[in-house]
Write a structure and sequence with these properties.
By secondary structure, the protein is α/β, with parallel strands linked by helices. The chain contains 14 helices and 18 strands. An 11-stranded mixed β-sheet has the order 4-3-2-5-1-6-7-8-9-10-11, with helices on both faces. The longest helix has 17 residues, at 228-244. The radius of gyration is 21 Å and the shape is globular.
């Protein structure tokens, strides 16, 4: 048997879910090849960056992530106890493909509206679901596992349509409501389910038992189990481990899960405290639902008379109406907004390849988002450079405020700007 491959796709949560799985597996003494948006890693050591991938192949690492499986050939000692853990972006369904034929475990997290209009084939959420259906189509025969979001109708549709290699015994439903499947039938037919109980604990359900796996209140990045995106990340990570071990869970899985901590430079729910007492949450949210959720989380953390301040940006490769719609959501959810630009002409210059559908124009995206925010919130500024936008937020933030800073692609640089401007330290 070859090295097992765990493939993860969905609209949001992929990178965090992969990071959590990676930590758990390495704590179980597995040798892990991880591919995510930032590059590829072997047992936590970065071997290449996203820029390396773009420079060499003109691909992000998560498009055709199977490219990095060569690590197991170059380092045969990794094979015996190795696992390949691959974040798979939407582009993996295009010409570049996955870079391998089959994976053993496929996780389909969710389908949201991000990337609509990016290409001619992506006009609806159904189109996105279909494009990501490779996650089920490429599962190995007989022993492969499908791990799916049972609360997402489109994910369930793709499961029913394409997961022919994973019978019910090898299907793990992840959910909070299970509104799109007959849960009891799923369990009676030999399937498994990962969910939470009323004490904020992750549990495994089968037809004849319920097993407590981890206490979410012991994971700071779930915010006492109240921040649903983190709860989903944790549930999916545990489901992936359950699939890898064919339901025979390690006895210390709960302890290892509760010990997981997110990389403070990972750009996912990094919490800092400013010198003046204000709280900063650095995150990579990039579509309207994620931005709304992180703003709502921030609102639960403000002090008396505190505000939620957003330092936000969006990627350029979206239709204009998406910038407008997202801007209006941002205006609704944040009290004060500062919009900066990914293509700012200083930290990042425009690049114009002939095949690009969306042109990169300095400052254009921030202007469109700014105009959208204005429709629902007049307390908005546009400052094109990220460092200057963060410095502005630091100058107006009060001790009782929470600032949500949406990091740029160079996450370490973004965190550096935050730490310098706010005189902030990690919590």
């Amino acid at each position: 048997m070859g090295v097992p491959i765990i493939a993860v796709t969905g609209t949001k949560g992929k990178t965090t879910t992969v990071a959590v799985i990676d930590q758990i597996l390495r704590a179980l003494d597995r040798d892990v090849l991880k591919v995510d948006t930032t590059g590829h890693y072997v047992n936590g050591e970065q071997r290449s960056t996203a820029e390396d991938s773009r420079r060499t192949w003109r691909l992000v690492p998560t498009r055709s992530p199977g490219r990095y499986l060569w690590e197991f050939h170059a380092n045969p000692q990794l094979r015996r106890n190795g696992v390949a853990l691959l974040e798979c972006s939407l582009g993996s369904s295009n010409l570049a493909g996955l870079g391998y034929e089959r994976h053993n475990i496929g996780l389909f997290l969710n389908v949201f509206e991000d990337h609509l209009g990016a290409t001619e084939r992506l006009k609806t959420r159904e189109d996105i679901a279909e494009a990501k259906s490779f996650i089920f189509r490429q599962i190995t025969s007989n022993d492969g596992y499908a791990v799916f979001n049972a609360d997402d109708a489109l994910v369930v549709d793709m499961l029913d349509k394409y997961a022919v290699r994973a019978d019910t015994r090898n299907r793990i439903a992840v959910g909070l409501t299970f509104e799109h499947i007959d849960l009891q039938k799923h369990l009676d037919d030999g399937g498994k389910a990962i969910t939470t109980d009323d004490r904020h604990r992750v549990v495994l359900r089968t037809a004849d038992r319920t097993v407590v796996l981890a206490d979410l209140t012991k994971l700071p990045w779930t915010f006492d189990g109240d921040f649903k995106p983190s709860v989903w990340n944790c549930m999916f990570a545990i489901a992936a481990v359950c699939a890898l071990y064919d339901g025979e869970l390690p006895s210390n899985l709960g302890q290892l899960t509760e010990a997981v901590r997110l990389d403070p430079y990972g750009g996912r729910l990094t919490v800092l405290k400013a010198g003046n007492g204000a709280t900063i949450i650095a995150d990579y949210a990039h579509e309207k639902q994620s931005l709304a959720e992180i703003a709502r989380l921030a609102r639960t953390r403000i002090g008396a008379n505190g505000r939620v301040i957003g330092v936000v940006r969006m990627a350029y490769d979206r239709p204009d109406d998406v910038f407008d719609e997202t801007g209006q959501v941002i205006g609704d959810e944040f009290d004060k907004v500062i919009v900066y630009d990914k293509i700012d002409g200083h930290w990042r210059q425009p690049e114009n390849y002939r095949i690009m559908k969306f042109r990169q124009v300095e400052g254009r995206t921030s202007q469109l988002v700014y105009e959208g925010v204005l429709k629902t919130n007049r307390d908005v500024e546009r400052i094109v450079r990220e460092d200057e936008a963060i410095a502005k937020a630091a100058s107006v933030a009060r001790p009782e405020d929470v600032v949500v800073a949406i990091v740029n692609d160079d996450i370490k640089r973004s965190i550096g700007f935050i730490r310098e401007s706010f005189k902030a330290e990690f919590i």
